[in-house]
Write a structure and sequence with these properties.
Order of helices and strands of chain A: HHHHHHHHHHHH
Chains: A mainly alpha, B mainly alpha, C alpha/beta
Strand order of the largest sheet of chain C: 5-6-7-3-8-9
Helix content of chain A: over 70%
Structural class of chain A: mainly alpha
Distance between the termini of chain C: 34 Å
Oligomer: heterotrimer
Number of helices of chain A: 12
Number of strands of chain C: 11
Radius of gyration of chain A: 19 Å
Distance between the termini of chain A: 49 Å
Shape of chain C: globular
Number of helices of chain C: 8
Radius of gyration of chain C: 20 Å
Chain lengths: ~270, ~300, ~290
């Protein structure tokens, strides 16, 4: 399997993307920002389409729009968190724009838009170029390292932003910075896993970790581990079964991990109360 | 067919209703607007927008799965949405109570996982079926303009059923939403109400997304109710306003799209967003006026 | 709206326990408890954490059975008296962005459990709705919340929210009001004013008030009697007879000192760690 270039590229990018998602995702779940993350992934898709319409590289549109919306959310919310309803309405509207752009794209170029759209939605990890996969890996790694460096201030801010401010931690800046980091990871990973499925890599491993342990260090490690295992397993399975898309396999495994963790945690609580 | 707008409302309306497909679209749009506005009002109050969006996305695996299994598409929508509601509702009881309490993070993780697993399954069904990828867009972004008579009828029946359930549970659901501990103390079946609401939401979403597409149904579920809640805190008035806004948004959207080359979905979401923004602005300035006028404590 | 029945069979006590004991998950929570809450009395249940105060409330509400002994509420078995009891469970404070008015919360105290469309179609229904609105205004006035009843609950302070919750429980004219730790999250001035409010309600609405508290001091001047639970037993009586070194030492079974500060506050010193069961507050077999 590893004799093939495209497989090696996929594993390189995938491993570090999974790592990044696992680590960042653990905080996203803790901070209750999954809906914002969901919005960002869909916005990434619209960004790619917008870039295609204007004639720019899709990645530019991805990054720009995602970062812009993340900035908007950070600005509108308290301690860098936006309200449920605001996120929902803004992102519904942006999707509406996406519809418009798709229509424009469909009428201006020929074919190809369906494929391009599908790739951004569902990912195409096996068609990453060596350069692309190295970049993806670098961003994933950088994101993980970034979070780990800011681990304790970020944790403090999340759990008690007032205390953090009093202790000299720049709570608001960290909040904004975190959303920006999320935007970057989202935009980058969209190409590998796809906009719609990226949320799964952010949520499921982290959710499982949160169910299993309350310790931050163990939780982060567990989240990263589950994400990477899901990635490797998914890639392997989809290599074996040609009609199984890699992103579906990866998400399927991640989701099963979450389900398993939920059941396990439930059983543990039951046993304790006997 | 390139209809031009004459800016005379009567003439335009007549032009609109000449074609059966437009009449169907208007009728379907009306039913969908009322349903989404009522159910959405509760959804926004209960802070379940994320769950609502997830349910709307379930239309995709529903349709793709139905195509794979040879079932009618509509059935696929309803089954997928209800299944997702059961997963999310069932998991809800395993979290802590309170919107922003302990359980919030893991509750959203459950919702997010259900969403992506559903989408991943949908994508799998699509690739197994080797269906044309262009269909993905229609699934996700919908088509107001391809509604059949039969669909309108089904919509009406589903809407009546869902709205009847909502009417029945108006006050208990409201009490349970704002004061779950008090509701439990008064003997209300809190878990059943939670799950029941999610199922009604699933029905509303499944019905609506056949018209507006999976990704855009959310605009009708969130924006008009959210706008109404900016303007008033009274439940009765809020529900009425929510319906009024939703109807306005849908009718305007359909009307304008008829005369334009751009898709209906874009107009509906843009008008919905505009209504929400306007309401927010009004609320913000009203506060300002109040503060200037009276010294409120 | 319930009208309190005045008649020869009107109960003389609000709640009465004789030789009551409760067991949960095999563990004896309290035993041989005897107490009487009279009509229109203001009574507090005190004791350390884990002493069984909430369990006692649950027994009075009929939510769990007695292992031995008897309990009557308003002269009837607890389950039958539930309609005449107003219960304020412990609650999280409302989320700051909850956009519902206080008056709506109080109205839901009246009709929150009524299934069906809230539209008054018949003349009778309209008449009832008018009577209910009057009752709501009246009860808001009683708790002193009229000024802020139209504001969003989430914006109100803890004390204001507590008053609205009391109004919600009061609006159905209960004969017995049971409150689980209503003063817990309030600051001292608010504790005092809520205590005073409850005292007023006892007399003006002729309601018996039974509340669970941790500190007797905000309540001391208003209470008719206090029920102190510790060591699996309970003792009741006027504050100055129960909260004494002698009485509490006897109850705990170990030397306890009750000190009085210069400003008249009572301080209990020397309590041992009460057995505490870890449990999710929202599980119905939790003990405290």
């Amino acid at each position: 399997m590893f004799a093939h270039d495209f497989v090696r590229n996929a594993y390189l990018a995938g491993t570090f993307i999974a790592l990044g998602c696992g680590v960042v995702g653990w905080f996203v779940v803790l901070r209750g920002q999954l809906f914002a993350g969901d919005a960002l992934t869909h916005v990434a898709f619209v960004g790619a389409i917008a870039a295609a319409v204007v004639g720019l590289d899709e990645r530019v549109g991805l990054f720009v729009l995602t970062l812009a919306v993340a900035g908007g959310m950070a600005a509108l919310g308290r301690r860098g968190q936006a309200d449920d309803v605001v996120i929902g309405t803004v992102f519904a509207w942006i999707l509406g724009i996406g519809v418009l752009l798709l229509a424009v794209l469909a009428t201006s170029s020929e074919g190809g838009t369906g494929i391009a759209a599908a790739n951004t939605l569902f990912g195409s990890i096996y068609s990453l170029s060596p350069g692309g996969s190295r970049l993806a890996a670098a961003i994933g790694l950088a994101a993980s390292v970034g979070v780990l460096l800011a681990l304790r201030p970020l944790l403090l801010t999340t759990l008690d932003s007032e205390l953090a401010t009093v202790r000299g931690v720049p709570a608001r800046a960290l909040g904004v910075g975190f959303l920006a980091l999320l935007a970057v990871v989202t935009a980058e990973s969209t190409q590998a896993v796809g906009a719609l499925l990226l949320l799964g890599l952010l949520a499921a491993p982290a959710g499982a970790a949160h169910r299993l342990t309350a310790s931050p260090y163990r939780g982060l490690a567990l989240s990263a581990l589950i994400a990477v295992v899901a990635m490797w397993g998914g890639l392997a399975l989809s290599y074996q079964f040609a009609s199984l898309p890699p992103s579906s396999a990866i998400i399927g495994l991640a989701g099963s991990g979450y389900a398993g963790a939920t059941l396990f945690a439930h059983a543990r609580v039951r046993a304790r109360h006997r | 067919m390139n209809p031009t707008i004459s800016l005379n409302p009567i003439d335009d309306f007549n032009a609109l209703t000449t074609y059966p497909f437009m009449v169907n679209a208007l009728e379907a749009g009306t039913i969908v607007a009322v349903l989404a506005a009522v159910v959405g009002w509760y959804m926004v109050l209960r802070r379940q927008s994320f769950a609502g969006h997830t349910l709307s996305v379930m239309a995709f695996p529903g349709a793709a799965g139905a195509a794979l299994a040879g079932l009618p598409t509509a059935l696929g929508y309803y089954l997928a949405c209800c299944a997702a509601a059961l997963f999310m509702g069932g998991a809800r009881s395993s979290h802590g109570l309170g919107a922003r309490g302990r359980g919030y993070g893991t509750e959203t993780a459950t919702i997010a996982t259900v969403q992506t697993v559903g989408l991943a399954a949908g994508y799998l069904f699509l690739s197994l079926n080797s269906a044309v990828l262009g269909d993905t867009e229609t699934l996700l972004f919908g088509t107001f303009l391809g509604v059949s008579r039969g669909q309108v009828l089904t919509l009406l029946l589903v809407a009546i059923a869902a709205l009847a359930l909502m009417a029945l549970a108006t006050r208990p659901l409201l009490l349970e939403t704002i004061d779950p501990e008090g509701a439990r103390a008064r003997g209300l079946p809190v878990a059943a109400l939670d799950l029941g609401f999610l199922l009604v939401l699933a029905l509303a979403v499944a019905a609506t997304s056949q018209i507006t597409g999976a990704l855009l149904v959310f605009a009708l579920l969130v924006a008009p109710p959210a706008a109404a809640q900016q303007l008033t805190m009274r439940p009765g008035l809020g529900l009425v306003l929510s319906v009024v806004f939703a109807l306005a948004v849908v009718w305007l959207g359909l009307g304008v799209a008829y005369f334009s080359i751009y898709p209906v979905g874009f107009y509906v979401t843009t008008f919905a967003f505009a209504v929400y923004l306007a309401a927010r602005l009004w609320h913000a300035t009203a506060r300002h006026r109040h503060r200037d006028g009276h010294r409120s404590v | 709206m319930t009208i309190t029945a005045l008649g020869p069979d009107r109960a003389t006590t609000a709640a009465q326990l004789v030789g009551a004991s409760v067991r949960l998950a095999g563990k004896r929570i309290f035993a041989d408890v005897a107490l009487t809450v009279g009509r229109g009395q203001f009574v507090a249940v005190l004791g350390p954490n884990g002493a069984g105060k909430s369990t006692l409330m649950r027994a009075i509400l009929g939510l769990l059975p007695l292992d031995s002994g008897s309990v009557t509420v308003l002269g009837r078995p607890p389950a039958q008296a539930r309609a005449a009891i107003g219960y304020l469970p412990q609650r999280h404070s409302f989320d700051s962005s909850t956009r519902i008015r206080g008056i709506d919360l109080v109205r839901l105290g009246l009709d929150g459990t009524r299934w069906g469309i809230p539209v008054a179609l018949t003349a009778g229904a309209r008449h009832r709705r008018k009577a209910e609105s009057e009752r709501i205004s009246q009860v808001l006035d009683t708790v002193g919340a009229t000024a802020y009843a139209d504001r969003a609950i989430g914006e109100l302070s803890g004390g204001e929210q507590q008053r609205l919750l009391i109004a919600q429980a009061l609006v159905r004219s209960p004969e017995l009001l049971i409150l689980d730790e209503p003063l817990d999250s309030l600051d001292l001035p608010n504790q005092a004013s809520v205590a005073e409010l409850l005292r007023r309600i006892c007399t003006s609405e002729y309601v018996s008030v039974l509340l669970v508290a941790h500190d007797v001091n905000p309540l001391a001047g208003y209470l008719d009697q206090v029920i102190y639970m510790a060591g699996g037993h309970a003792t009741s009586g006027p504050v100055d007879q129960v909260i004494t070194s002698a009485k509490l030492s006897e109850l705990y079974g170990t030397p306890i000192e009750v000190l009085k500060t210069a400003d008249g506050r009572l301080v209990v010193v020397g309590q041992p760690e009460a057995p505490h069961y870890h449990g999710d507050r929202h599980e119905h077999d939790g003990h405290d």
